[in-house]
Design brief:
about 120 residues; mainly alpha; 2 domains; two-stranded parallel sheet; about 10% strand; globular
């Protein structure tokens, strides 16, 4: 979704841990199709992937119901609402100086990357 919403940019690096789903043939084929470069964390070194580790901590403590969901569709809908709505649009982040991720990215492209095209 991020790749598509940004107009399919070139030279994108995808950073992940060493999970089996990121090393599967299906995932590698998607990377090849979209011409993504994969960067994989070193084994047993969570600091290499600290941003995602922090994100997953946030989503589990702030959003995911302790009682669970009725079905996969409900879980997907609620988690999408968190990521696209609350986490990216509303929730301030101290790392971004109190800005939301969307506002921080917007300012980055507007002021620091004027030659880049943002859709």
């Amino acid at each position: 979704m991020a790749y598509e919403s940004r107009g399919r940019p070139k030279e994108v690096m995808f950073h992940s841990d060493q999970g089996s789903h990121y090393q599967s043939r299906q995932f590698r084929q998607l990377e090849w199709r979209y011409r993504l470069t994969q960067s994989i964390s070193r084994r047993s070194n969570c600091s290499n992937n600290s941003l995602m580790e922090r994100f997953f901590r946030s989503i589990t403590t702030e959003w995911i119901r302790t009682t669970g969901y009725r079905n996969f569709s409900e879980a997907k809908h609620c988690i999408n609402d968190y990521i696209i709505g609350y986490y990216s649009e509303t929730r301030p982040h101290s790392y971004n100086g109190g800005l939301t991720p969307n506002e921080s990215e917007y300012r980055y492209w507007k002021y620091y990357k004027p030659v880049a095209k943002m859709t």
